[in-house]
Amino acid sequence: WYRCSTGGESARDLRTFTGRTIDVPSAYIAGKSDWGTYQKPGSYEAMQSRTCSDFRGSHLIPEAGHWVQQEQPGYVVEVLTDFLRG
């Protein structure tokens, strides 16, 4: 599914990044109704506090699910524009 799976060769490749952080300005955008945000308990919170060293914010877009950019394109553009302006 997508271009990444969680088993076999893909899992081995992903282990390269274990324990590393994302060290560039980062933000998280998701639909508020997207179950994937909470798929693995604690991951959402860890991403905000430990995974990204320059975390600029989390944006859970109302009235949107997994396809947030299609369900609320105007809201996503607004969040991205604000992020890029710094």
Please tell me about this protein's structure.
- It is a single chain.
- The chain is an alpha+beta fold and 86 residues long.
- It has one domain.
- Helices cover 38% and strands 15% of the residues.
- The chain is built from four helices and two strands.
- It has helices at 8-14, 43-51, 68-71, 73-85; strands spanning 26-31, 55-61.
- It has a two-stranded parallel ribbon with strand order 1-2.
- The chain starts with 7 loop residues before the first helix and ends with a helix.
- The relative contact order is 0.18.
- The mean pLDDT is 89.
Question: Which properties best describe this structure?
Answer:
single chain, 2 strands, 15% strand, two-stranded parallel sheet, alpha+beta, globular
Helix content range: 25-40%
The sequence of SSEs as H and E is HEHEHH
Give the strand order of the largest sheet, numbering strands 1, 2, ... along the chain: 1-2
Rg from alpha-carbon coordinates: 14 Å
Q: How many domains is the backbone divided into?
A: 1
Q: Could you list the spans in which at least 5 consecutive residues all have pLDDT below 50?
A: none
Number of helices: 4
What best-fitting shape do the alpha-carbon axes yield? globular
Q: How many DSSP-defined strands?
A: 2
Mean pLDDT value: 89
